[in-house]
Design goal:
Layout (H helix, E strand, L loop, with lengths): L1 H8 L2 E7 L13 E3 L13 E3 L10 H15 L3 E2 L6 E6 L2 E8 L2 E6 L2 H12 L4 E5 L3 E2 L2 E6 L2 E5 L1 H10 L28 H14 L7 H8 L7 H15 L4 E5 L7 E8 L10 E8 L2 E9 L7 H25 L8 E5 L2 H6 L13 H12 L3 E5 L16 H10 L2 E3 L5
Parallel strand pairs: 13-16, 16-17
Antiparallel strand pairs: 1-7, 1-8, 2-3, 4-5, 5-6, 6-7, 9-10, 10-11, 11-12, 12-18, 13-14, 14-15
């Protein structure tokens, strides 16, 4: 979301690294350590060290370091976000600076380049900082400048994943999941379940920049404890799709609008084992995709309308969180969020209390969404199935349809020169 705002508003974007970050943390607990080899005191070899600061390897180290950084930033005028604990922000009149922390890696962005530099200098007075300049490679994600925007790519990660799985020379495929065949947990057990766990777990991290993989990977994750030869073949199909999309990533482009609109969809009773439905949604800030989900519903639904309503509830919760974060940062446009659903029954339920008697079994979801609509926070509109962008998160699709929806999710290929 913040990357989208940075691209749209032309903010400054910087990447920082803290040298030996975990050594800066002060321990709140009493921790003793044996004298390290080569540094024993010959006069008192039986003595131990009483640690005042954290060391790498201690369970408390990440927490102690974050608390030290957190307290220092608060003392310099930053405020901690109540919506996301890894986010801190600084406000001075019309100037805003945002700081995202992941262990010792930090991203700083803001609409005032001088203020960003000043805050960096304050930070360097207490911690040894390495200013890496413009954001390039962060947590395995490469940020590439394209057409005045950014493309978030994990091509190095994908290449490494293909190498680990022995699929470097595989033949590419156009889609990650077959349309004609469903999977079941009944088959010959896979003889290397550890490999299945490692590869599928690695695929999960790829969905950060490749939302088109979400449905296929989510489906494979259901069989972590009952993986079969058939499931491993489906993993290889996903890897063959990755082979053909190494240059693809999530593109963020300048957007004039900062209004929120979202698409929700479900595939009713799609699981042949327990007949639970699959939900999917896509949330946009202006023209940029900022959040998405593919997930099997927790309960069995008794109608397609109920399944669609539960999917609408899921996206409503996500949009509520996004709105609360934007409001906290003072960046919300004030416009109600628009939710698009391809089930007329659900759109009527959101505004017509007469239907309540027929939906007592979805009462909690009903009240949550309808209260949002009644308060003017949400607008729920109907969209035809052919224009339902969340369809890609609920079921396998033919290649032409899959490619069209993938493009609308802003999954794009790198330009030839990149």
């Amino acid at each position: 979301m913040l990357f989208s705002l940075t691209v749209s508003k032309g903010w400054t974007l910087r990447q920082l690294d803290i040298h030996n970050a975990f050594l800066n943390g002060h321990l709140a607990e009493t921790v003793y350590m044996k004298q390290p080899p080569g540094y024993e005191d010959p006069m008192t070899p039986g003595h131990v060290c009483h640690l005042q600061r954290s060391l790498y390897g201690l369970k408390q180290a990440p927490r102690a370091w974050f608390k030290r950084l957190h307290d220092f930033l608060l003392s310099t005028g930053f405020q901690a976000s109540k919506t996301d604990v890894s986010l801190l922000y600084y406000t001075a009149r019309d100037s805003r600076v945002f700081l995202l922390v992941y262990e010792d890696d930090i991203i700083m962005m803001g609409n005032d380049a001088k203020l960003v530099t000043t805050l960096l200098q304050r930070l360097s007075t207490t911690f040894k900082i390495r200013d890496l300049g413009a954001l390039g490679f962060f947590l395995g994600i490469e940020t590439i400048v394209v057409d005045d925007g950014l493309l978030l790519s994990q091509r190095r990660y994908m290449t490494d994943l293909l190498g680990r799985s022995g699929m470097v020379d595989c033949k590419p495929l156009a889609t990650p999941a077959a349309v004609t065949k469903s999977i079941t947990p009944v088959d010959t057990p896979y003889d290397n379940p550890t490999q299945y766990w490692h590869i599928v777990g690695a695929l999960q991290y790829l969905t950060i920049t490749l939302p088109d993989l979400s449905y296929a990977v989510n489906r494979l994750c259901k069989f972590m404890h009952t993986s079969t030869e058939e499931h491993w073949n489906l993993v290889k199909r996903v890897l063959r799709y990755i082979k053909g999309t190494l240059d693809f990533g999530l593109q963020l482009t300048p957007s004039v609008s900062t209004a929120i609109h979202a698409y929700s969809d479900s595939d009713w009773a799609s699981c042949p084992v327990d007949r639970k439905s699959t939900s999917g949604y896509a949330v946009y800030l202006g023209s940029n995709l900022i959040s998405w989900l593919s997930k099997k519903q927790c309960t069995v639904t008794r109608s397609s309308t109920e399944a669609e309503y539960k999917a609408l509830t899921d996206v409503s919760i996500e949009v509520t969180w996004v709105v609360s974060l934007l409001q906290e940062l003072g960046l919300h446009s004030g416009q109600p969020a628009t939710l698009w659903c391809d089930n007329l029954g659900v759109t009527y339920l959101c505004a017509n209390p007469v239907f309540h008697a027929r939906t007592k079994h979805v009462e909690i979801d009903y009240h949550f969404v309808r209260d949002k609509v009644a308060s003017g926070d949400f607008l729920v509109n109907y969209v035809s199935t052919t224009d339902q962008l969340a369809d890609i998160f609920t079921k396998p699709l033919p290649s032409p349809c899959f490619s069209a929806l993938r493009g609308k999710l802003n999954v794009a290929s790198l330009p030839p020169c990149a």
